[in-house]
């Protein structure tokens, strides 16, 4: 790898350019130096290692993520993907678009279709045809996100 230094007092903002031969090589450099991939804005993807190999999914297509023991189930527009990983890893990685609604469930805020009270579960939210209970402990997360959305 080469690093070039260029000093220009006329620029308004510092710039870091990574030139790679392949997308995979670019991703490795970004991960190696703990950089945020700003080029991927709308097409952000996750690379998930499953028992069958790697699955590449777009973040905006994830409906919700449910933790079951040592596994995560990613419920997406196209189906369900099972991965062996801790939930906290994806909670940090997806913090911008996702909120935690219970100890074992993260939801894509943009995919929520309805929020209602339920006699059995208390507060529930609907994502597509799935009804997910919201823990009282995490209800503040939803209220905060709704307030942020109302300000925009």
From TrEMBL:
GO molecular function, one term: DNA binding
HTH LytTR-type domain mapped to chain residues: 46-148
Pfam families, per the entry: LytTR
Gene3D superfamilies per the UniProt record, alphabetical: LytTr DNA-binding domain
Organism superkingdom: Bacteria
Name recorded for this polypeptide: Transcriptional regulator, LytR family
Organism: Lactococcus lactis subsp. cremoris (strain MG1363)
């Amino acid at each position: 790898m080469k690093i070039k230094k260029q000093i220009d007092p006329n620029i308004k903002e510092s710039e870091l350019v990574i030139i790679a031969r392949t997308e995979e090589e670019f991703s490795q450099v970004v991960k190696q130096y703990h950089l945020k991939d700003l080029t991927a804005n709308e097409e952000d993807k996750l690379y998930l290692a499953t028992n069958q190999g790697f699955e590449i999914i777009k973040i905006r297509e994830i409906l919700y993520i449910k933790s079951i023991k040592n596994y995560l189930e990613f419920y997406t527009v196209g189906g369900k993907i099972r991965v062996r990983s801790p939930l906290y890893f994806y909670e940090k990685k997806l913090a911008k678009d996702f909120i935690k609604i219970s100890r074992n469930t993260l939801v894509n805020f943009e995919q929520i279709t309805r929020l209602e009270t339920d006699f059995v579960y208390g507060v529930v939210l609907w994502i597509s045809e799935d009804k997910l209970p919201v823990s009282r402990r995490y209800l503040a997360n939803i209220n905060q996100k709704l307030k942020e959305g109302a300000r925009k």
